[in-house]
Amino acid sequence: MVKISGQKPALSPLEQAKANPLMLGLFLPIQSGAWSPSTASRDTSWTFDYNARCTVMAEELGFDLVFGLAQWMGKGGYGGEMKFREMATDPLLVTAGLAAITRRILLVSTVHILYGWHPLHLAKFGATISEMSGGRWGLNMVTGYKKSEFEMFGLEQIEHDHRYVMADEFVTMMKRLWSEDENITLDGRFWKMKEAFIAPKPAGGKCVLVNASSSGAGLDYAVKHSDLIFVTSPAGANLDRACAALPPHTARIKQAAAAQGRDVRTLINPHVICRETEAEAWAQYDAILRHQDPVAAENFYRTFTGGDQSSWKAATREEWTIGGNVHIVGTPTQVVEGFQRLKAAGCDGVQVNFYDFLPDLKFFGERVLPIMHEAGLRLDQPLATAA
């Protein structure tokens, strides 16, 4: 990151993001088709250039973070005529590229740490991107749950709770490499290090740690290590059902973190369909469903509602075709009201995704963000809409 001023910010990038009453993130479309297995008209692209444009626009609009998921798919992706998600870039490398063209926004990468990584590798790579970005890099730690992905790497699938036992050791080693200024020798249960060391260290002695989990073992890990926790609706994507089910879920997370003396923030992933009128917004929702790729939609739904993970189980096939964890559809005012409801349900932030990302993000900046400021959800002043 090119430093424009020698002044050091009073707050870390994470603390600056947390200062907003509702954190605001963008879920980057780094896989073909993004979250919606539909052929309805759009220009959304998985390419780095397109995602770079999304990220720069999000930063100019005042978003706090961008985030990309990771996946390992066979030829054809989830199938269908559109070969949904066959094209997929790596979020760690995408994030490194975004570091050079941004100045303020947090950049979060997903990494499947059990697919052959060593803590020393990721500690070094993370510290490097932290230096490149001025301390703005975050790791979304995932353990993986798909048997097919483990098999791609020649590995046996690991039992659910045991994956988090391994993750705890991995991340504990990584944090020590980030924070300690001497060589480290460790004979762990799963990984070993002899005279291991990295320099430079990440800003503040640690990179931002993120996790998405709903299970008991996953949340035990998350409240111990993570700064931000991506939560999912226990009741599917319908906004009313989600807001009814989320309060005890988010409260349990906050209570578990507080018991360990930690302050974590929870974020949820809404798919936002916003138009000037409610009828126009629902017409877009219907168009996505009407033009769904039935083979891709079925495979996508079956994959995410199967397996031994706890998240996403309550979402219907229709909800998976739209994409996102909860749906907010309507006018700019109705979208902000939806955000207010999620905040009241215990969500500290929203990580939004769209169907046609660049025009939808531009409209969001022009019409939704000013209302968010008026509603007290964002403290910083609205910035000019990106061109």
Automatic annotation (TrEMBL):
* Tagged with keyword Oxidoreductase: yes
Broad EC category = oxidoreductase
Q: Which Pfam families match?
A: Bac_luciferase
What InterPro entries does UniProt report for this protein, alphabetically? Luciferase-like_dom (IPR011251), Luciferase-like_sf (IPR036661), SsuD_RutA_monooxygenase (IPR050172)
Q: What is its EC number?
A: 1.-.-.-
Residue span(s) of domain Luciferase-like? 24-348
Instruction: Cite the PANTHER family for this sequence.
Output: ALKANESULFONATE MONOOXYGENASE, ALKANESULFONATE MONOOXYGENASE-RELATED
Name of this chain's protein = LLM class flavin-dependent oxidoreductase
